[in-house]
Design brief:
Helices cover 79% and strands 2% of the residues. Helix 1 packs across helix 11 and helix 13 packs antiparallel against helix 14. The radius of gyration is 21 Å and the shape is globular. It has a two-stranded antiparallel sheet with strand order 1-2. It has 466 residues and is an all-alpha fold.
Length: 466
């Protein structure tokens, strides 16, 4: 049989003893965790299609619309790792429940927002709640499925929840925006959160682990990522020589240095720097960052392209995303079968190669039909790789640190999405014009995916046990 291998030995924890919740309870836990993941992922894609309508309603500029997206993804990414520690410390079930409640309240505030600044603030609260929901939901799945084979299948279904949200988000966002207004995109979270809470009540009480919080690391992480995104967005709108852009980027650089120092000296660091010394783990994180950068960055610019350049209504714009998003859920499930038969390394390699080729094809195609055709391998390939990437990250750390593992991987992913929206929005607003900026954005996505594909290919490979 095969196991994960890389250029150095990975300390894979021994199998969790048999036991855990019964099959019926495990299914309810998985349903609740998947629904929670679906809900927090839905807003990221649904809002993209609604951006032009939000801009008209709340008088937002392109920079303001970037913040309507990054006001969610920046705190989501920056708080993710600490949220994983909070999940481990307080218990995944409790943290998951509180996260769902706060997310629902913040969603209502988004729908009632009278101004763009209010919407961005409410989105930030959504993000803080989503940041604890995601690693807690993954920890619940990990705890409810002690058997590795069952856990792999459960993680594929859990990942499929996010994939389904990515697929449904643009279409649902377009339909709701056209029929009921952009506010309805946020109100649909209320019944979803209520159902997830009801299902989570059946989950067994989660074990707690002494996981001290690293406040210095958390503060510097927020400042570093927030400053970088703010600098890029401000630079794209006002020029990178402007005072606001210079100050933001300087704060980001200083905070990044502070983060590295804080993590190297802390007794209980938020991100133990030793975790990044594993080549395969570092490659997984780079791949997660690249995948989200490609997906969310392209979703942002294509939403503007479809509605501002092609002039189509929100419903049509949502449908035009289906070639990229429609196969995501199917790709997740097929990936689990491929991984079970041939190994996770096969699913990761194949998915990244196909996704990278699809993204590269987007650079050279012309016309709406060519764009739609190229979106198929781009979306399906990236969706195919994600479940095995997630499984690989989880299995490089003990089960007791599932919150940290999930937080670290998903923080990398959300960071990629936040930086891409900021960077691609700046390119699209540049002097060269929207279409030229969009082409450069596509090329940047393809390049990032190519680098991470090479990294994963060279570090994540099977070895035969003798």
């Amino acid at each position: 049989m095969t196991e994960i291998a890389n250029t150095e030995r990975i300390d894979v924890p021994p199998p969790t003893p048999a036991g855990g919740p019964g099959p019926g309870t495990a299914r309810l836990v998985l349903a609740s965790a998947t629904l929670g993941f679906f809900m927090i992922s839905l807003d990221a894609t649904a809002v993209n299609v609604a951006l032009p309508a939000i801009g008209r309603s709340l008088h937002g500029t392109t920079a303001g619309l970037q913040w309507a997206v990054d006001g969610y993804t920046v705190p989501f990414a920056a708080l993710m790792i600490s949220a994983g520690a909070v999940s481990d410390r307080l218990g995944a079930r409790r943290v998951f429940g509180w996260g769902l409640a706060v997310f629902a309240l913040a969603s209502a505030a988004c729908g009632l927002a009278p101004a763009l600044l209010t919407l961005i603030a409410a989105r930030s609260v959504q993000a803080a709640a989503g940041a604890v929901i995601l690693p807690a939901s993954l920890a619940l799945v990990r705890q409810a499925h002690p058997d590795p084979a069952g856990r792999a299948r459960a993680i594929a279904l859990w990942s499929g929840g996010a994939a389904s949200a990515m697929a449904a988000g643009p279409v649902l966002g377009g339909v709701l925006t056209s029929a009921l207004g952009w506010q309805s995109i946020f109100f649909v979270n209320l019944p979803a959160a209520a159902l997830a809470l009801a299902l989570a009540a059946r989950a067994p009480r989660s074990a707690r682990r002494a996981a001290p919080l690293d406040l210095a690391g958390q503060v510097t992480a927020v400042l570093a990522l927030g400053g970088l995104v703010s600098g890029v967005i401000t630079g794209g709108a006002s020029g990178f020589e402007s005072g606001a852009a210079v100050v933001s980027l300087a704060v980001a650089a200083a905070a990044a240095c502070g983060f590295a120092i804080a993590e190297s000296r802390a007794a209980h660091p938020m991100v133990p720097l030793g975790l990044l010394r594993s080549p395969v783990r570092a490659a997984f994180l780079a791949a997660g960052l690249s995948i989200n950068a490609a997906f969310y960055g392209i979703a942002f610019v294509l939403s503007l392209y479809f509605q501002r350049v092609l002039g189509v209504p929100p419903v049509t714009a949502g449908l035009l995303f289906l070639p990229m998003t429609g196969l995501l859920a199917v790709a997740n499930l097929v990936s689990a079968r491929v991984a079970a038969r041939w190994g996770h390394h096969v699913a990761v390699r194949l998915g990244l190669v196909v996704g990278t080729l699809g993204m590269a094809l987007l650079i050279v195609v012309r016309g709406r039909v060519g764009l739609e055709v190229a979106l198929v391998p781009a979306g399906a390939g990236l969706g195919f790789a994600l479940p095995s990437l997630t499984f690989g990250v989880l299995d490089t750390l003990p089960a007791s640190r599932a919150g940290l593992a999930g937080g670290l991987f998903n923080a990398a992913r959300q960071t990629g999405g936040a930086l891409a929206v900021a960077g691609f929005g700046a390119l699209a607003s540049g002097d060269a014009g929207f279409l030229a900026g969009m082409r450069v954005s596509l090329a940047a996505s393809a390049f990032l995916l190519l680098i991470s594909t090479i990294a994963v290919w060279t570090t994540f490979r099977p070895v035969v046990r003798r």
